[in-house]
Amino acid sequence: MISEPSVVENASGRKPGEPVQSAITYEKIPTHIYADAKDASRAVAQEIAALIREKQQQDKLCVLGLATGSSPKTVYAELIRQHREEGLSFRNVVTFNLDEYYPMEPDSLQSYVRFMKEHLFDHVDIPEGNYFIPDGTVPANKVAEFGRSYEDQIQSYGGLDFQLLGIGGNGHIGFNEPGSLINSHTRLMMLDHSTRAAAAMDFGGLAKTPKKAITMGVSSILSARRVVLLAWGERKAPVIRAALEGTVTESIPASYLQTHPNALFVIDEAAASDLTRLQTPWLVDTVEWDNRMIKKAVTYLSRTLGKPVLKLTNKDYNDNGMSDLLAQVGQAYDLNIDVFNQLQRTITGWPGGKPNADDTKRPERALPASKRCLIFSPHPDDDIISMGGTFQRLHDQGHEVHVGYQTSGNIAVADDEALRFADYVVDFNEKFGIDSPEATRIFKDAAEFLRVKKDSEMDTDEVRYVKGLIRKGEAKSTCRFVGIPVENAHFLNMPFYETGKVEKKPLGEEDIQVVMDVIKKVKPHQIYAAGDLADPHGTHKVCLDAIFEAVRRLKNEDFMQDCWVWLYRGAWAEWNIYEIEMAVPMSPDQLLRKRLGIFKHQSQKDGVVYQGTDSREFWQRAEERNRATAGLYNQLGLAEYEAMEAFVRWHF
Ligand code: F6R
Fold first, then answer.
1. Does Cell membrane count among this protein's keywords (predicted)?
2. Rounded to the nearest whole angstrom, what is the distance from the C-alpha of residue 101 to the centroid of ligand 1?
3. CATH top class, domain 16-278
4. Is there an atom of ligand 1 within 6 Å of 168 CB?
């Protein structure tokens, strides 16, 4: 069995192993929540390893159902480590994968055969004939027959001892999309739009993404003797809540696991964040009413009842499970004023501090009046998309603003866009000639490759160079637009990013060094970083880890004694209202100006390569999010602004 989770299993501060006191459970499947995906994966790998060893001792085969996608990668990595370092053998292991795109050649870049070999099979001693993956090459009229024989084959090994699952944002398990029946078998499935959009990253765009897949059915999955579902990151939070707390429904196929006698959800805190026990822990158990919990509860009550904070009554608190809060702090009146004031004090038009003002209750220090600010931007456009209004204000208010562009972002430039630029340079050089034959060669090679590039091909170094240059030009253009000198734009080109593939290398020493170098050079009073703590695999998280490590290493330097780190949310989500420590408002004009700044990133407009499941353009996402933050403040009873950017401080 999986060992005790390393995070508290409820919100009252109880440690693992301590007894659960009359907590009401909303989840209908046992759920273990871990601080992060790594800890969680270690526990899952441990269970799998124990099962393999147990079967070995009994001289039996261990039959595993396996999944692909980003979720199980960390589990596979841990199994490989155990094979290498702890002698875990896979000689008695037989595996059946859940699914495969259709049609799909096994040696294609995106095939699940290739995925499994790269992430597990090639690194352990599983015998060649012991792993099975649905065949993406069977003719269409033979798929039904193939499905039956796949299931027969599983049965011939005695059925699945253990099934590992991920979960789609739409609730799919395997590729059993919403609408799949509980008694469905292995079959051909039409992929949901959201599934294809999520996979489009790997295929270089939606148009090139397969429309179908062969998947094990729901009944095939439910027949496994043990099922463990993994989910990481806040992107999965809503569907995790629906699958665990909602009714069993075909619109969320993962909810069928509620009918399984031995299923377990292993999730990280971010994926758990919408669960009742985390969102409104006071409805589940006794909680410790510290200031953060009070802010969380009061803002929740205000939003739920649609009443401004200052209008909440004792009855509102009592009726909504917060009578013990009142008992502890007194009247609603006092509580409301306290929380209202705290919210009010987060709002400032002076993100670099207001000179000559009393700063005891302001988010930032007044001194030094003119600060050096270093904004880290994971991709070349995150600075303007996520904190463009604040970026502009910092510059306008006389601070010395620098930007550290962490990666080249080259992978997100479309081929035809790159070809357009390469052609431009080639034509120009041919007409006027330039001194550098090397430059001519780079652009010529890039253009020639792009003209004949196949979908499954990786970009050459020359193409990646051209694509990176396009994005660099766009970032410089934004800096000019805001008004900072181009010398203050630092292009770090962190090496972990430069694989030419969606899949990146792990963070390395060189990455940390380039981040440390720019901090040492700028000696900032403020660092702004994209605080995407929730996405365990994304570029933003790796970029953030590099900043955290660099800051930790530099924290004893003199200049760091006066440096504050502010985190903005880089992806599409905003900080929770109770977490926000600085909210910078924007007027309608300032919001429009930010939009124009985002427009400088022309390669990211009009159908970007990595759209994801959100079809809005970046400026739309940014505006909607900033307006929503302002709307929320207003709903809580604070002044009505057009839009707001929000920050949380990181104390290192
Ligand atoms: C993969 C599979 C899918 C994924 C799901 C989540 O074999 O069957 O159900 O598990 O789409 O994908 P990730 O883990 O990439 O979020």
1. no
2. 12
3. alpha beta
4. yes
3-state secondary structure of 173: strand
Q: pLDDT tens across 609-621, in order? A: 555 667 788 899 9
Q: List active site positions.
A: 177
Q: Which CATH number fits domain 372-409+463-650: 3.40.50.10320, 3.40.50.300, 3.30.470.20, 3.40.50.2000?
A: 3.40.50.10320
**CA nearest ligand 1 atom 4, residue:** 166
Burial tier of 154 (Cβ tally within 10 Å: 0-12, 13-18, 19+)? buried
Residue nearest to atom 11 of ligand 1 (CA): 168
Give the predicted TM-score (pTM) of the model: 0.86
Q: Residue 234's Cα: distance from chain center in Å?
A: 7
Q: Is the pLDDT confidence value at 460 over 80?
A: yes
CA-99 nearest atom, ligand 1? 7
Gap between the Cα atoms of 432 and 430, Å rounded: 6
Which atom of ligand 1 is found nearest the CA of 172? 9
Torsion of CA 320, 325, 329, 333, to 10 degrees: -10
What spacing in Å lies between the alpha carbon of 196 and ligand 1's midpoint? 11
Is ligand 1 within 6 A of the CB of residue 233? no
Q: CA Rg, the chain, in Å? A: 27
Does ligand 1 come within 6 angstroms of the Cβ of 64?
A: no
